[in-house]
Amino acid sequence: MNATANVDPNEIAKFSELAHRWWDPTSEFRPLHEINPLRLDWIIAQCGGLAGKRVVDVGCGGGILTEAMAHAGAEVTGIDLSEKALTVAKLHALESGAPVHYEMIAAEAFAEMHPDTFDVVTCMEMLEHVPDPASTIRACAKLAKPGGTVCFATLNRTAKSYLFAIIGAEYLLQLLPKGTHDWQKFLKPAEITAWAETAGLTPKAIIGMGYNPLTKRYFLTDDVAVNYLIALAKW
């Protein structure tokens, strides 16, 4: 791995340890499976459909969203720096028949090789795990074609997110392993928007995601104080 890559080795190791459980819907990755349909539908709405479009999923992990976008008709490439996660993703794609191309490479390096290439760029739950999120945002902007759509999903740095995403999700409800997130690395929408605009992206839409512990269901909401998705356009 390139020593100058925008990556935290501890974060890669943390998710690599769990890689074999990525496609188990009852595992630590259960929340990703349950929110995937919500995310997919929202991304489709923001980009006017995925059929026939070139898409790159930055920080794809085991490929849950990556495969879903391929099944929706997109030509999808998934990139990540976890060799174990990518191995799982490739094996699952062989089993499911999803036409996905996977590559182990940093977003910044991939952007240098493929500037202005993709109709849609997705980067889900990655910005809060890298040392320099602004660098990742610049790379995603560079990968998008003019007129393309870039979608991020991350967590807001608020008192409510500490209560719900750390105390609630990791310790009380045990939806995620303890230590999955570092609240200080959460990102406010204004921070992402500022970095994105500097990189040539214009905000299009933002929406929050909530969880009902009684029904055990996730839902989209206007409240962006905890989890949120933001779509931006490259002009």
Shape: globular
Q: Determine and state the CATH class.
A: Alpha Beta
Strand order of the largest sheet: 3-2-1-4-5-8-6-7
Beta strand %: 25-35%
Q: How many domains make up the 3D coordinates? A: 1
Name of the CATH homologous superfamily: Vaccinia Virus protein VP39
What does this structure look like?
This protein is α/β, with parallel strands linked by helices. The protein has helices at 9-17, 30-47, 64-71, 83-96, 107-113, 133-143, 159-172, 189-198, and strands at 54-58, 75-80, 100-104, 118-124, 144-155, 201-212, 217-221, 227-234. It has an eight-stranded mixed sheet. Helix 2 crosses helix 3 (64-71) and helix 5 packs parallel to helix 6 (133-143).
Task: Please give a handful of descriptors for the protein shown.
alpha/beta; globular
Strands, helices and their partners?
Elements lengths: L8 H9 L12 H18 L6 E5 L5 H8 L3 E6 L2 H14 L3 E5 L2 H7 L4 E7 L8 H11 E12 L3 H14 L16 H10 L2 E12 L4 E5 L5 E8 L1
Parallel strand pairs: 1-2, 1-4, 2-3, 4-5
Antiparallel strand pairs: 5-8, 6-7, 6-8
Helix pairs in contact: 2-3, 5-6, 6-8
